[in-house]
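Progress report, Aim 2. The chain analyzed during this reporting quarter is listed below.
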Amino acid sequence: MQIWVDADACPGAIKEILYRAAARHALPVILVANQWLRVPPSPYIRVVQVAQGFDVADSHIVEQAAAGDLVITADIPLAALVIEKQAFALNPRGELYSAENIRQLLDMRNFMDTLRSTGVDTGGPPAFSHADRQSFANQLDRFIARRRKPL
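Predicted structure tokens for the chain:
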């Protein structure tokens, strides 16, 4: 299992949690971004810098992620694509996307996008909080514990 990170929009606090998880569990974490990223030195952490452009990082993640991998993203269309590949997706607020909930989340996202395009102010997501960070860390720990094979 590898952890892929849609890193351009991923909060720094979430990246820090992932760096610690990579070291603690000896798990490969690959951050994909269209800009240079500074990461701690580790044999488990790698950065892939892709070209600038719409969805270039997302396309790279979809191409490279394999069944059983975990993708960290708040991008619901990206989550839907990796779920189709039998990978898993977790957003930075700790919500695990699944085959059971992705269609409803994608439909709601598309509905809100339609509202915004007609001029309706739908507001934005709430500020990223300590509770969100804790929820992500807890969900990540549960996910890793369920997926790791005993030695």
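The longest strand covers residues 29-33. The beta strands are 3-6, 29-33, 45-49, 70-72, 88-90, 96-97. These observations will guide the mutagenesis work planned for the next reporting period.
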